[in-house]
Amino acid sequence: MPFNISFKIGTHLVWFDYFRTLIVRVLSTARTGYFYTTQRLRLGPKLAMMKYDPVVKQRVLFVESRKTKK
């Protein structure tokens, strides 16, 4: 489970943030409604990947459509 850790070095408070990833939904561009959920870095670019769509029975482009709740 993600959590924050902080500790003090001298007079500075140091935070280690473990919320670096997002869970996102990637949707088929074949407009079949099929989707995968996957993780990506919070500060990274939006996902686009070639994956198998079982509705059309071939590999198609999947693009990030929205973020899901973590």
TrEMBL record:
GO cellular component: mitochondrion; ribonucleoprotein complex; ribosome
Chief localisation class: mitochondrion
One function term, GO molecular function aspect: structural constituent of ribosome
Transmembrane residue ranges: none
InterPro entries given in the database record: Mitoribosomal_protein_bL33, Ribosomal_bL33, Ribosomal_bL33_sf, Ribosomal_zn-bd
Record's keyword terms, sorted: Mitochondrion, Ribonucleoprotein, Ribosomal protein
Organism domain of life: Eukaryota
Localization per Swiss-Prot or TrEMBL: Mitochondrion
Pfam family, one: Ribosomal_L33
Keyword Ribonucleoprotein: yes
Stored SUPFAM superfamilies: Zn-binding ribosomal proteins (SSF57829)
Gene Ontology biological process terms in this record: translation
Protein family: Belongs to the bacterial ribosomal protein bL33 family.
Record protein name field: Large ribosomal subunit protein bL33m
